[in-house]
Amino acid sequence: MRYVKRCRLLKGIVGIEAAIVLIAFVVVAAALAFVVLNMGFYTTQRSKEV
């Protein structure tokens, strides 16, 4: 009985850890996309000035 309860608790913890890692990847990807888009807009503006 205790083993089953402990196993469920560990599965829950692993699920939470996986969700945190997934959220971290999404945040990093969003930041990277923001930087890439801003660099594209900046380059476009610079090319119009020249």
UniProtKB/TrEMBL annotation:
Localization in the cell: Archaeal flagellum
One Pfam family it belongs to: Flagellin_arch-type
Bilayer-crossing regions: 12-37
Keywords, ordered alphabetically: Archaeal flagellum, Membrane, Transmembrane, Transmembrane helix
PANTHER family per UniProt: FLAGELLIN B1
Molecular function in Gene Ontology: structural molecule activity
Taxonomic superkingdom: Archaea
Organism: Ignisphaera aggregans
Main subcellular location of this protein, as a coarse class: other
GO cellular component, one term: archaeal-type flagellum
GO biological process, one term: archaeal or bacterial-type flagellum-dependent cell motility
Known function: Flagellin is the subunit protein which polymerizes to form the filaments of archaeal flagella.
Protein name: Flagellin
Residue ranges of coiled coil: none
Record-linked InterPro entries: Flagellin/pilin_N_arc, Flagellin_arc-type
Family: Belongs to the archaeal flagellin family.
